[in-house]
Design brief:
A 6-stranded mixed β-sheet has the order 3-2-1-4-5-6, sandwiched between helices. The protein is built from 13 helices and 6 strands. By secondary structure, the protein is α/β, with parallel strands linked by helices. The longest helix is centred in the first third of the chain and has 17 residues. A hairpin with a 4-residue loop joins strand 5 and strand 6. About 50% of the residues lie in helices and about 10% in strands. About 30% of the residues are buried.
Length: about 280
């Protein structure tokens, strides 16, 4: 079997979890290879996401690693046997890989919770708002690259508007609502769209108002994507050149705490709608 040139973030996550199970069992790659009757190089390739692993082999490894969490093992099997080629594949080779990895993560998520301080979250953006975001960078992107990014961002809305929408919660700081990334008309349209989408039963929009005390340590923009089991949750944070995927339990614990903190001090959905409507009326 040919090795993967560029495993997806989902394939890498499976590989990481298998490595964590082996480490927890106190086994070397050579010892794990002996359990399957393969070479240690093959175990290394599996644990790097460069090659896949069958359900039979994965379950054998999990049993020998003394993993008794059946739901977790079943979730790993689902990841290992998944052959989904989603809509994002049409952008492979056209957009940076993290764009595709984010779309794949959202596709498989059981829920999505997002916190943003300066921008409207991607799945809630209008086309003009997204175009303004992608146009405002130095050096400026070619127009065809901007349009590719805009089209991709609009297709991400399938998680909210598709036949099986994902439960989605967004906590948005008032600064993001007031910041005009384009002109007044585009800002008004963006706020109107935010109000419209917030009416869906599976979408919750909360506003973090300016007048909060003691909030200096919680400025962490991120998205938490629910896995099939909590162990497989993933947090996504903005990095200088691409989105950074976080999956270590310690870091996930910190980010979950921050998410709960901003949710607890944000306005309830009804009061949030009132704030958004007020700002829209002022434009």
């Amino acid at each position: 079997m040919a090795l993967r040139r560029e495993p997806t973030a989902r394939q890498v996550r499976l590989a990481v979890e298998l490595r964590r199970l082996r480490d927890a069992a106190g086994l070397t790659a050579r010892e794990a290879a002996a359990l399957l009757g393969v070479s240690s190089a093959q175990i290394s390739q599996i644990e790097a996401g460069l090659t896949g692993v069958s359900e039979k082999r994965l379950r054998r490894l999990a049993a020998n690693y003394a993993c008794t969490d059946e739901a977790f093992v079943d979730a790993l099997v689902a990841m290992a046997t998944d052959r989904t080629r989603g809509w994002w594949e049409e952008y492979r080779g056209l957009l940076p890989t993290p764009f595709l990895d984010l779309s794949e993560l959202e596709h498989h998520a059981t829920f999505l919770s997002e916190v943003q301080f300066l921008y409207i979250p991607g799945p809630l953006q209008t086309e003009n708002y997204a175009r303004a975001i992608f146009s405002d960078r130095i050096p400026q992107l070619p127009s065809e690259d901007i349009e590719l990014r805009v089209r991709h961002r609009m297709q991400r809305k399938v998680i909210l508007e598709g036949p099986a929408p994902t439960p989605y919660e967004a906590v948005i700081h008032e600064a993001a609502l007031r910041l005009r990334v384009s002109d007044r008309a585009a800002s008004r349209a963006q706020l109107a769209h935010l109000l419209e989408v917030s009416e869906a039963d599976h979408v919750t929009v909360r506003v973090l108002p300016f007048d909060l005390d003691n909030f200096g340590g919680s400025w962490t923009a991120m998205m938490l994507a629910g896995g099939a089991v909590p162990k497989l949750d993933t947090a996504v944070r903005d990095a200088p050149h691409a989105a950074a995927f976080v999956d270590s339990e310690a870091q996930l614990g910190v980010l979950r705490t921050l998410l709960h903190r901003v949710r607890d001090v944000s306005l309830d959905p009804n009061r949030s709608r009132d704030v958004i409507q007020k700002l829209a009326n002022e434009l």
